[in-house]
Structures are given as C-alpha cells and as structure tokens.
Specification:
It holds the Pfam family MOSC. Residues 18-168 form the MOSC domain. This is MOSC domain-containing protein. The longest helix is centred in the middle third of the chain and has 9 residues, at 65-73. A hairpin with a 3-residue loop joins strand 7 and strand 8. The radius of gyration is 15 Å and the shape is globular. It has helices at 45-50, 65-73, 122-126, 131-134, and strands at residues 4-9, 20-21, 24-27, 31-32, 60-64, 87-90, 102-105, 109-116, 135-137, 143-145, 149-155, 157-159, 165-168. The protein is built from four helices and 13 strands. An eight-stranded mixed sheet has the order 2-1-6-5-11-8-7-13.
C-alpha cells in the first residue's frame, strides 16, 4: 500500500480540534503557517507553563487514519482533525518510525520525526473514555501511546490530501519514539 496524506488541518486559535483545509503550508523551523502551535519555541500551553524557552519539537502533529477505524470498532466516531492533528495519514506505520526519520510529503515538504504525542485529558472532554483507548499499557506494563507522532519542519512546502509520503530512516541504531 502506498503511504498518503488523507487530510490536512490547522487552527489559528487554541482549540482541541482543527478544521480540515484544502492545503497547509509548512514553514521550515516553524511548523504549519497560521497554526497556533507554529514557532521555534514550545506553544503547547502545558509546555509553555513549564519552560517557554524549550525548543518546539511538536511543530506538526501526524496521526494515522487507521486509528480512527480501530476506535470506530470500539464505538468512538473520530474524523480527521478532531484529535488536533495537522496531517492525517494512511498506509504508513507512524508509531513504528524511529526518532530522526524523515518524512517527505508531496514534492517539497520534509518533516523530521521527534517523538510520540502525549495525549492529555482534553481527549476525554472530546469523547468520554477516549483517552484510555489512545493511551494504555501493554502486557509488560509499559505505557503505549497511539495518538500519533510529533515532528519538526526541515523543508517547507505545501501539503495536500492525496500527497504521497516517503519515509527515510536515519543511519545508526533504531531509536524508538518516546513522548515529547
């Protein structure tokens, strides 16, 4: 199966969900043009409260459309943009990528994977019980986060639904994603 972008979303105001767009523009070193989370330093409110000078490793949030189907089987109705992601994908194992993987979107944009999204309680405000479906524990008791990955923009460009996604793995040992 070819990996593709199925939806793009952005919001210039703090809100849990992000409206779908015909396209988004990624700006190198910043994030999604016009999105509230774009910037060199952290923009997520909880991170700003801790230390507003931290580098923004959460410029662009990607989530796999396959998660929506999984959640649908458990009685949750989730559509692209509703979990706050900027880019919805299909056909790529986002959660299995290593730190530093590059994602080439369409013909121009390049993202560098920084880690896993650490979902917050706002997910349960969106749909009660959803947080426990996107964060849980495996058989060994390890925390498993399924709410997508975070990235930074290495090369800017326009991204649209239907764009292809190509992953390039970094050299060296596989560094599993951790929450950022």
């Amino acid at each position: 199966m070819n990996a593709i972008v199925t939806a793009v979303s952005s919001n210039g105001e703090y809100s849990f969900t992000k409206p779908n767009r015909d396209s988004i523009t990624l700006l190198a070193g910043l994030g999604v043009e016009g999105d509230v989370h774009a910037g060199v330093t952290v923009k997520h409110r909880s991170r700003v409260a801790q230390d507003p000078t931290q580098p923004n490793l959460r410029q662009v949030h990607l989530i796999h459309e396959e998660l929506f189907a999984e959640l649908g089987q458990e009685g949750f109705a989730v559509q692209p943009g509703e979990l706050g992601e900027n880019i919805t994908t299909r056909g790529i194992d986002l959660l299995g990528l290593p730190v530093g993987a590059l994602l080439r979107l369409g013909g121009e944009a390049v993202l560098e994977v920084t880690g896993l999204r650490n979902p917050c309680l706002q997910i349960d405000a969106f749909q009660k019980g959803l947080l426990s479906r996107v964060v849980g524990r495996d058989g060994a008791g390890n925390v498993v986060r399924k709410a997508g990955i975070m990235s930074i923009v290495k090369e800017g460009g326009t991204v649209r639904p239907g764009d292809t996604i190509r992953a390039e793995l970094p050299s060296g040992p596989h560094r599993a994603l951790e929450r950022v």
